[in-house]
Amino acid sequence: MKNILIIGSTGQIGTELALTLRKIYPTVIAGYIPAAPPKGELLESGPSEIVDITNPDQIAEVVRRHKVDTIFNLAALLSAVAEAKPQLAWKIGLGGLFNVLEVAREEGCAVFTPSSIGSFGPETPHDKTPQDTIQRPKTMYGVTKVSGELLSDYYHKRFGVDTRSVRFPGLISNVAPPGGGTTDYAVDIYYAAVREGHFHCPLKPGTYMDMMYMPDALRACIELMEADPTKLIHRNSFNVTAMSFDPEEIANSIRAVIPSFTMEYELDPLRQGIADSWPNSLDDSCARAEWGWQPKYDLPSMTADMIETIRRRG
Ligand code: SER
Predict the structure, then answer these.
(1) Domain made up of 170-211+242-313: CATH architecture
(2) Residue of 25, 32, 141, 208 with catalytic role
(3) What residues line ligand 1, using a CB cutoff of 6 Å?
């Protein structure tokens, strides 16, 4: 990796990935759409370009001009928003991926496109979900993710494009907020705990989902793209996880730091339905064996760091 383009750089993973990659690699271009321009450190620390994933000519022009060799394709609508706008979710998630893969095929770029725990569905084994298993999601988000996994594998096999991917669990960060995801409650709860001491939880107790602290997620992206290709049996896409918890367990981990924290349940049926169709916990042994995946943060260490950081920023 030398000249990197991030499509969707102003979103939840994009901002932090761009800032992290800029400390390691010579050129990291922050691709954005005019509705969500880069600001602050992202804007000031390196080049940015308008790259609308639905516009293949625009992608190709930026790739050629900057001699891009690696594309991180992070443009997507998250699960709950995608249910409200399924047509747009398909246009960005699958139409956009097709555009990226075509440019990558012509210009010789490697491509990273995250998949998700959302690529699984109600018929998938929910506990220790295997790497290779039933994927029949019932959300548009999931449909685009499974289709994207297949399309990316196709471009690798048929055209030799270096496509790689991980199935991200819920990502928890104190930098850019998520938007419209089913796992977002696990970010919101920390801000509510520090600022109000109280949280209205949209999911019921016992709703287990995989989660990961953002520093681990960023390492996963970079380590997979740096991995020796001869060791990769899988490509699109690897199960990765760091922890699995339900609302009660994350609330208890917060109470270990803020004993007065309280939580009440105010269920969101859309998000509850989506969460119920997703795994309780993933088996990520293939990622560990094929490219050495290893998370660093567990629930207590993530909680301590989240609360400390939010308090420090005020
Ligand atoms: N965080 C995502 C969501 O909730 C899952 O990949 O939609």
Answers:
(1) Alpha-Beta Complex (3.90)
(2) 141
(3) 78-79, 116-118, 141, 168, 170, 181-183
